[in-house]
Write a structure and sequence with these properties.
Distance between the termini: 47 Å
Order of helices and strands: EHHHEEEHEEEHEHEEEHEHEEEHH
Family: Belongs to the PPC synthetase family.
EC number: 6.3.2.51
InterPro entries: CoaB-like_sf, DNA/pantothenate-metab_flavo_C
GO biological process, one term: coenzyme A biosynthetic process
Helix content: 25-40%
Number of strands: 15
Structural class: alpha/beta
Radius of gyration: 21 Å
Protein name: Phosphopantothenate--cysteine ligase
CATH architecture: 3-Layer(aba) Sandwich
CATH superfamily: CoaB-like
CATH class: Alpha Beta
Strand content: 15-25%
Number of domains: 1
Bound molecules: ligand 9Z3
Strand order of the largest sheet: 8-5-2-9-12-13-14-15
Length: 349
């Protein structure tokens, strides 16, 4: 199958880490990939995950952190949401110079995390390394050094006019951090994403219906198995590149059926052609049997989504007036879903 570049961005460069994220960002569980040599198992079977996809070296450590987080907040009567956010990276070479990326800035996941925290949830934020992060996302367009003045003798002052609402945002960020309500976990590659999501599902199984999965990450449907991947950088002197990719196993199936059968699970469906969106969303719901699909079109995702469930279809729209007041559609999505989650818990117990 020849690679179609329509839904991917071929990313040849490593993105720069923004200074502001390193200053404000909290401690993060970082995934380091250890490549195994793997071959020929059935990718459709979720049991074969470790055979086809390299296991991140510290998955067990992250699993324990997530399990302790879920237990602690579950015991305190809190609901816990696992948010996935950002795009997955699919390497083309083992010693990776080039990779395929799925489009996602991480804005939806990062802003949703803030609204879930406001609704009283504890949040596990499984996000792509260097994608947008709760609270710091509000300052991504700002060069931090332009906001600071060196006053001498180790004293630095901040120009608050250049960091809108910084006092309020910082206060909220520190409240969330000191209450231990946000657990950030990072992924970069598709393999890391798949293994960490499986570990999260197992870690959250102890709190049953109090767990929500909010799967906003943009996940590749295609990958190159490590056994078929060249070790070294592909040489352009060999002529034009043709890549054959395999289908990624549908992780939602075992997640809903085996790993977290009592949880409230929400997936996102992204299309560029609006005419097939709802049919694709319904198809996902029928296939995976989870609770809801949030359907969106790439160009209009900031102002319009449809929450599709087995027996309902709810359009969420930002009016011009709301957009002007900088209301975010994620506030409406989170309100809708947290309400549905409470009903779900009341029914299931
Ligand atoms: C989404 O559809 C998200 O809403 C976006 C958010 C990625 C569009 P941003 O991060 O964008 O705010 O820039 N996520 C799911 C995308 C996805 O990969 N879905 C798969 C599919 O549509 C699996 S259900 O087939």
């Amino acid at each position: 199958q020849v690679l179609r570049t329509r839904t991917f961005i071929l990313n040849l460069s490593v993105r720069l880490h923004t200074l502001i994220q390193s200053v404000f960002g909290g401690p993060v569980a970082r995934a380091h990939t250890k490549w195994n040599t793997m071959s020929g198992s059935d990718p459709a079977a979720a049991g074969s995950l470790s055979e086809e996809f390299a296991v991140p070296a510290h998955v067990e450590e992250v699993r324990s952190l997530m399990a302790a987080f879920a237990e602690q907040h579950g015991a305190a009567g809190r609901m816990v949401v696992l948010i996935t956010s950002g795009g997955t990276k699919v390497p083309l070479e083992s010693r990776t110079v080039r990779f395929l990326d799925n489009f996602s800035s991480g804005r939806r996941g990062a802003s949703s995390a803030e609204y879930f925290l406001s609704q009283g949830y504890a949040v596990i934020f499984l996000h792509r390394h260097r994608s947008l992060y709760p609270y710091t996302r509000l300052y991504t367009g700002v060069n931090l050094l332009d906001c600071l003045t060196l006053e001498g003798a180790g004293l630095v002052t901040v120009d608050q006019r250049k960091l809108p609402n910084i006092t309020k945002v910082l206060k909220r960020y520190q409240e969330v951090k000191s209450a231990g309500l946000l657990l950030p976990v990072e992924f970069s590659t598709l393999s890391e994403y798949l293994h960490l999501l499986k570990a999260a599902a197992q870690a959250l199984s102890s709190i049953g219906s109090k767990a929500m999965f909010y799967l906003a990450a943009a996940v590749s449907d295609f990958y190159i198995p490590a056994s078929e991947m060249p070790e070294h950088k592909i040489q352009s002197s060999n002529g034009p590149l043709q890549i054959s990719m395999k289908m990624v196993p549908k992780i939602l199936k075992p997640l809903v059926k085996d790993w977290a059968p009592k949880a409230f699970v929400i997936s996102f469906k992204l299309e560029t052609d609006p005419s097939i969106l709802l049919e694709r969303a319904r198809c996902a719901l029928d296939t995976y049997n989870h609770q809801a699909v949030v359907a969106n079109v790439l160009d209009t995702r900031h102002g319009y989504v449809v929450v599709v469930t087995k027996d309902s279809q709810k359009e969420l729209v930002l009016t011009d007036e709301e957009a002007q007041r900088e209301v975010e559609i994620e506030e409406k999505i989170v309100q809708n879903l947290s309400h549905a989650h409470i009903q779900f818990i009341n029914q299931k117990g």
